[in-house]
Structure to design on (486 residues):
């Protein structure tokens, strides 16, 4: 006899039931409605892309499966499950550029896969939602993506002002590096990594990392960027310039990076973004300039932005926690050029749907904390199945989900089944009810509420709360009242 396989999920892949699935679908429906209202069209691309189309995610190896899940097609070409939704967009834009409206504005959502080590909150498969504009170099395109993202996050369930999109510009950072005389790419990367730790280590810790280095609590030493004290203070002044309004921040940044060609270009782009955001009605409480934002700067070419949750959040144990980033994006003008050889401007915003749903739950703002089950029609007799199905059909035609119990258990087990489904009500129809043209409706919502308060079983049995026998023609309205009360 062959050995039975063990029922187990692959590491980094999870199963989601009703509550989580309903919450994520609700988020996607709300955000899609916003994106379409702004003139962005939906686009779906296949799960697989040729591996060479994934660009920087291709490893230097014979088998391209490091970071991605890849397989070889029958024509010996390597295909990989998409790592994100941006690389497929770049390929699609390059492949169809002549026939696309320009700029091309699209949004997309779907699963992406990463062949990385899984960990707490880190999965190998998750759903992303992106919106991008390809073909516009105007800073106003960045501003529009930012403003639309603000509206999308609020439509998903975040109250106005409960998240802020922090905005920086790659060109400002390049201008800063020029101003302090840094030309080595390795030294630049060390400086940016130090800046990225500002929230965790504070200015004093970052100051050490900008200089000779820092020893942490465990005694481990991290080598610093080797800046002299004056240069280190200039970097810290740059990161601190984001306190205040957007115009005030621009003035402070001009003192630090103004005078370099690239720095001035970055300042002009942020100024144009500020003007557009004001026209779009997006204040500093929802979109702020923050020079400490360091996001994928090997990938982005101009503006970069990151959405940070401001609401108080609790972990699974009820303890306060900092949730941090819930999405981000920026300008990437080099991606389409990988296919065409011609620089094509592009900008976009992306968020992980599961992460946003988790953030909403942690903040007590989840759009769907439970997944309601259907009304369950109790089945007493095989001979009456056609009648039970007719009743379920009538309920569904009234716009209320309903099902007939199709197991083989008795009345008690059927009621338990309905309760486990979180059904709002059960419909009981025996021979007497069928003959009289009536139905009995058990309000399970009310039953669950009363059960949590009743300690005397005799009282429970005697009162039979929430049960009523009504004419069959009144069934839909009675069920609607139960649903509205729930």
């Amino acid at each position: 006899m062959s050995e039975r396989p063990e029922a187990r999920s692959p590491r980094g892949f999870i199963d989601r039931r009703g509550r989580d699935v309903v919450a994520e679908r609700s988020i996607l429906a709300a955000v899609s409605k916003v994106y379409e209202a702004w003139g962005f069209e939906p686009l779906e691309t296949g799960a697989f892309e040729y591996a060479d189309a994934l660009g920087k995610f291709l490893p230097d190896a014979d088998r391209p499966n490091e970071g991605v899940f890849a397989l070889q097609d029958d024509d010996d070409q390597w295909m990989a499950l998409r790592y994100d939704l941006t690389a497929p967009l770049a390929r699609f834009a390059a492949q169809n550029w002549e026939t696309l409206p320009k700029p091309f504005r699209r949004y997309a959502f779907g699963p992406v896969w990463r062949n990385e080590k899984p960990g707490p909150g880190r999965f190998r498969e998750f759903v992303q939602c992106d919106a991008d504009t390809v073909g516009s170099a105007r800073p106003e395109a960045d501003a529009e993506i930012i403003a639309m993202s603000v509206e999308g996050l609020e439509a998903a369930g975040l109250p106005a002002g409960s998240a802020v999109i922090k905005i920086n510009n790659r060109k400002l950072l390049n201008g800063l590096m020029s101003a302090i005389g840094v030309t080595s790419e390795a030294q630049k990367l060390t400086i940016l990594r130090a800046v990225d730790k500002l929230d965790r280590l504070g200015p004093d810790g970052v100051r050490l990392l900008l200089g000779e280095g820092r020893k942490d609590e465990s005694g481990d030493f991290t080598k610093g960027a080797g800046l002299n004290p004056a240069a280190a203070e200039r970097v810290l002044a740059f990161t601190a310039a984001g306190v205040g309004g957007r115009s005030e921040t621009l003035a402070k940044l001009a003192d630090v990076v103004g005078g370099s060609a690239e720095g001035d270009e970055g300042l002009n782009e942020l100024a144009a973004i500020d003007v557009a955001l004001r026209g779009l009605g997006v204040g500093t409480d929802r979109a702020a300039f923050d020079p400490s934002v360091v996001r994928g700067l090997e990938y982005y070419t101009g503006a970069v932005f990151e959405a940070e949750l401001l609401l108080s959040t609790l972990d699974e144990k009820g303890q306060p926690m900092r949730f941090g980033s819930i999405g981000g994006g920026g300008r990437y003008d080099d991606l389409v050029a990988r296919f065409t050889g011609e620089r094509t401007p592009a900008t976009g915003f992306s968020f992980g749907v599961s992460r946003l749903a988790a953030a909403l739950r942690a903040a007590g703002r989840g759009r769907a904390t439970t997944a309601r089950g259907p009304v369950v029609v109790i089945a007493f007799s095989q001979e009456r199945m056609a009648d039970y199905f007719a009743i379920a059909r009538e309920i569904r035609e009234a716009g209320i989900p309903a099902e007939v119990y199709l197991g083989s258990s008795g009345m008690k087990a059927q009621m338990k089944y309905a309760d486990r489904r979180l059904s709002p009500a059960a419909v009981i129809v025996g021979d007497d009810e069928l003959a009289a043209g009536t139905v009995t409706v058990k309000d399970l919502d009310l039953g669950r509420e009363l059960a949590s308060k009743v300690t005397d079983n005799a009282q429970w049995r005697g009162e039979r709360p929430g049960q009523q026998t009504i004419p069959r023609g009144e069934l839909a309205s009675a069920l609607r009242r139960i649903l509205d009360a729930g």
Q: What stands out?
A: The CA atoms of residues 51 and 79 lie 5 Å apart. The domain at 18-362 is CATH 3.30.930.10 (BirA Bifunctional Protein; domain 2). Residues 57-63, 460-464 have pLDDT under 50 and may be disordered.
